[in-house]
Recover the amino acids of this structure.
């Protein structure tokens, strides 16, 4: 018995073994699937299975077609899967086409809006912002709460936290949340709105996806750790400014506005490095 | 080259999004011009001329709700019609909602004018401190004496008034056994067990534990924007036949604490028994299937109507395809750029199927605004049921919006959203205010187009309740609109003279005398349209109990088949058109 216990202690836990063994690229899809299942099985957040499936399918097909067309290779489908689920979960509309076009635009943005072989926008962030700005009469984004049980939220945050830690992205998440809470206090002081009302959005599902899959997206965040902190805080500040202007989808627009310039600056900085080195 | 092509396709897709978005809202509004010639009818606002001068006053609740008073006190304007004195002309009852304010009963003078007789008949002074204020009313002859009695539901004490042969009303609440306090926005009369006596279904909105004038706590708000189940309880009150009612809600299996704003009872599954559809705010709608009067089965999810949570405001039924099937129309919230729930038009499957499909978008009746009361009726007498829908929540200062703050709190966990103290103050701002009504005309081929502006319904008050009634007995459905904190509006309908119609004024004998639940199937020119006598529909409203059928240019009807609530069938062959038939249930 003691030996069994000792052996158990000496063996890594199943989760740890899974986290160590699994390809990083599969972790985010695992997490987004978990978010989807928790959200839907707990509260039925999906308006329709078929529309969510349509969004995923549209994203995957677009990824495959463009991957073959542009790079003549079979692309990894993790990004398309995450994008499709995000669009399927977040888009709220009585019509069907936004689920298709939202996914197609999201994935296509990776292939069109590029600088030095890096895409600038997080795909679903671009797709959602495009739909919100261009189709305000028919498209909105899920901006209500999950429901009233705390445990699904805790589960998502725990698993999300573990995966982000594994991906070395947890500090981004923590920095954003800290900035948000602090700036919520600032907004409360400026507007006279109760602080709890100003922090309320972070308890909603849009923020779970925003925090775990958009601001931490490795492909569209800057590489230096110090710069990452700067960018995340900048996103939170721009979001605050937009919120003070009563912009409902402030976080999405803030990331849309801050992320690409930050990447461009980093690209410029990197390209200037040899030149600077030669001068030195 | 490949990149350029991809970029062009990408740009084209962005343009496509804009075009599709515009398409969703354009093409649904018909052009102007001579409304009568172009659309077949015209609405003239005649409330002042008709003597219906009335402006609704909203309630004022506990001072701790002051910051969000326009939201919590956003309802109360209601209207219902009934022939109170059995003179063959419809009278109009409207509610006021401030403490000390008086409701109005506009008696039809049969000459196009109305006289308020509420005070003299004893149903005006009903908004007294300590008893709550009016939210709506429905009429039904609960004792089968031939006169329509009045059920008044309130944020407070529900009240029942017995109609003393059209001369006055007697309060009978005490002996009737109604619940002492219900914060209700909806109620219907129905004979759920078909025993010939009208029962009451009364639906709470706020919890019945809450006294909005004297709060024990500010934790009274919905616990969720989409999953709230901390609203008021529901009451099915069975008529014992001796002037008293018993609470059989639990026995019948109706368990709901959702925030119900509207109820409609109709036979949706062809069983002959009335089913119940509840349009719930802050959550999914509910459909209770009547199992032979013995119990109700919650078929919300299986039927499809209870899957996607929205903010249900109104419930009405109508045979939109002229195929004898009743569809359910539920209004919700649509605010461009913020929240697009879209209204629902739940169309039943083929005979025998129990599932409904939402066809509101494909039929063009999804996007109205922040929609409230809606009613089906053939406004242009072309033989197809149209839809009249009111819109607009809180019209505060122009060009201001509370939407951002509203969306912020709506996301919050129950610990935040459920406490009114956490809600950002409105400070006079609007929330989906200044919206206009929609008069959606059914083209008979599966599409509706909005002609409200063209036919004369141009005002932008905060509409709540709408009823359709033939106030002049001319074979045209007039429109009466109760506006929150606004004036009562009466739109007199003028329909093209080449269009025919037929009406049925039913009187039960074995069935309840109001004939509520009776179904008429009218067959003409290869079409069949079904309508049921309703004990309340829309939002805080009750239409003309008489059934009105437009016939288009057809001057003849093959037959009318009446299924009485008792189950008795009656066929009238070749009834004369352009007249209202008074039909008494055969003994």
């Amino acid at each position: 018995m003691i030996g069994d216990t000792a052996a158990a202690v000496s063996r890594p836990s199943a989760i740890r073994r899974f986290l160590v063994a699994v390809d990083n690229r599969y972790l985010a899809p695992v997490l987004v699937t978990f978010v989807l299942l928790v959200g839907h099985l707990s509260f039925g957040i999906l308006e329709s299975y078929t529309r969510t499936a349509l969004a995923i399918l549209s994203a995957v097909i677009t990824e495959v077609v463009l991957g073959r067309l542009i790079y003549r290779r079979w692309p990894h489908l993790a990004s398309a899967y995450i994008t499709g689920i995000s669009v399927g979960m977040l888009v709220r509309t009585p019509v069907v086409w936004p689920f298709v076009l939202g996914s197609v635009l999201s994935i296509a943005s990776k292939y069109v809006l590029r600088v030095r072989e890096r895409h600038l926008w997080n795909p679903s962030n671009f797709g959602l912002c495009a739909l919100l700005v261009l189709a305000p009469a028919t498209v909105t984004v899920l901006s209500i709460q999950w429901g009233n049980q705390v445990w699904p939220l805790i589960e998502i945050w725990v698993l999300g936290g573990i995966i982000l830690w594994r991906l070395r992205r947890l500090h981004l998440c923590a920095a954003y949340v800290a900035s948000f809470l602090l700036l919520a206090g600032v907004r409360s002081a400026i507007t006279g709105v109760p602080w709890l009302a100003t922090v309320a959005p972070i308890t909603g599902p849009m923020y779970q996806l925003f925090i775990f899959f958009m601001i931490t997206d490795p492909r569209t965040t800057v590489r230096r750790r110090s710069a990452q902190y700067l960018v995340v805080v900048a996103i939170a500040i721009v979001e605050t400014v937009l919120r003070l202007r009563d912009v409902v989808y402030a976080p999405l627009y803030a990331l849309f506005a801050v992320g690409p310039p930050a990447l461009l600056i980093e690209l410029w900085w990197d390209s200037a490095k040899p030149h600077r080195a030669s001068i030195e | 080259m490949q990149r350029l092509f991809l970029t062009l396709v990408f740009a084209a897709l962005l343009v496509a999004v804009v075009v599709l978005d515009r398409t969703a809202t354009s093409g649904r509004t018909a052009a102007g011009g001579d409304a009568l010639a172009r659309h077949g009818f015209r609405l003239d606002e005649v409330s002042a001329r008709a003597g219906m001068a009335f402006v609704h006053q909203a309630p004022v609740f506990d001072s701790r709700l002051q910051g969000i008073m326009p939201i919590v006190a956003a309802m109360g304007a209601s209207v219902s019609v009934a022939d109170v004195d059995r003179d063959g002309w419809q009278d109009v009852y409207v509610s006021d909602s401030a403490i000390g304010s008086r409701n109005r009963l506009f008696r039809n003078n049969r000459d196009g004018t109305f006289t308020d007789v509420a005070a003299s008949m004893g149903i005006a002074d009903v908004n007294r401190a300590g008893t709550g204020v009016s939210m709506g009313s429905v009429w039904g002859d609960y004792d089968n004496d031939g006169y329509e009695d009045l059920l008044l539901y309130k944020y407070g004490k529900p009240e029942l008034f017995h109609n003393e042969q059209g001369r006055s009303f007697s309060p009978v609440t005490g002996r009737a056994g109604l619940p002492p306090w219900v914060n209700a926005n909806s109620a219907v009369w129905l004979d759920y067990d078909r025993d010939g006596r009208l029962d009451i279904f009364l639906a709470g909105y706020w919890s019945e534990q809450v006294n909005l004038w004297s709060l024990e706590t500010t934790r009274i708000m919905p616990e969720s924007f989409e999953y709230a189940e901390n609203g008021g309880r529901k009451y099915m009150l069975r008529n014992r036949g001796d002037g008293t009612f018993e609470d059989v809600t639990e026995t019948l299996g109706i368990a709901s604490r959702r925030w119900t704003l509207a109820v409609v009872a109709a036979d949706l599954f062809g069983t002959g028994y009335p089913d119940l559809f509840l349009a719930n705010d802050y959550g999914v709608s509910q459909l209770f299937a009547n199992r032979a009067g013995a119990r109700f089965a919650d078929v919300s999810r299986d039927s499809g109507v209870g899957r996607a949570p929205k903010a249900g405001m109104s419930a009405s039924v109508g045979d939109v395809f002229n195929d004898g099937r009743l569809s359910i129309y539920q209004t919700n919230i649509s605010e461009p750029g913020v929240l697009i729930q879209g209204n629902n038009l739940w169309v039943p499957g083929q005979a025998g199927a129990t599932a409904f499909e939402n066809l509101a978008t494909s039929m063009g009746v999804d996007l109205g605004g922040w929609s409230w009361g809606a009613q089906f009726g053939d406004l242009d007498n072309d033989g197809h049921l149209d839809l009249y829908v009111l819109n607009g929540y809180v019209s505060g200062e122009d060009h201001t919006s509370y939407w951002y703050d509203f969306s912020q709190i709506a996301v919050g966990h129950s610990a935040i959203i459920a406490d009114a103290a956490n809600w950002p103050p409105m400070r006079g701002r609007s929330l989906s205010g200044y919206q206009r009504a929609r008069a959606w005309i059914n083209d008979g081929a599966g599409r509706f187009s909005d002609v409200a502006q063209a036919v004369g319904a141009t005002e932008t008050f905060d509409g709540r309740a709408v009823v359709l009634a033939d106030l002049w007995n001319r074979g045209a459905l007039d429109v009466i609109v109760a506006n929150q904190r606004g004036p009562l509006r009466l739109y007199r309908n003028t329909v093209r003279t080449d269009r025919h119609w037929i009406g049925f004024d039913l009187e039960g004998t074995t069935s309840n005398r109001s004939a509520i639940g009776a179904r008429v199937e009218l067959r003409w020119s290869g079409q069949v349209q079904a309508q049921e006598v309703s004990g309340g529909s829309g939002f805080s409203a009750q239409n003309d109990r008489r059934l009105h059928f437009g016939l288009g240019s057809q001057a003849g009807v093959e037959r009318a088949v009446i299924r009485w609530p008792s189950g008795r069938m009656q066929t009238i062959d070749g009834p004369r058109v352009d007249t209202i038939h008074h039909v008494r249930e055969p003994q």
User: Anything to note?
Assistant: Chain A touches chain B through 55 residues (CB under 8 Å). The beta strands of chain A are 91-92, 114-115, 118-119, 140-141. Residues 250-279 of chain A form the longest helix (30 residues). Chain A has one domain: 2-271.
